Amino acid sequence: MARMSNGALARFNPAQPGAAGMKIVATGLLLVMAVVFVVSRALQPAHPWLAYVKSFAEAAMVGGLADWFAVTALFRHPLGLPVPHTAIIPRNKDRIGEALANFLRENFLTPSVVARRMRNIDVAAAAGRFLQTPAGEGTRIRAGASRLIANIFESLDDERLGGIVKSAISSRLRAMEVSPLLGHALASSINDDRHVPMLEAAIRWMARALDANEPLIREMVHNKANWVLKLAALDTKLADAIIDGLRKLTTEMSTDPAHPVRIKVEEALAQLANDLQTRPETRARVEEMKEQLLENRSVGLWLDTLWQKGREAVIRAARNPDAVLAGKVGEVLKSMGATLERDPQIRIAINRFARRAVVGMAASYGSSIVKLVSETIRGWDARTVTARLEAAVGRDLQYIRINGTLVGGLVGLVLHVLDAL
Question: Given 295, 310, 343, which residue is the final one in a domain?
Answer without folding.
Answer: 295
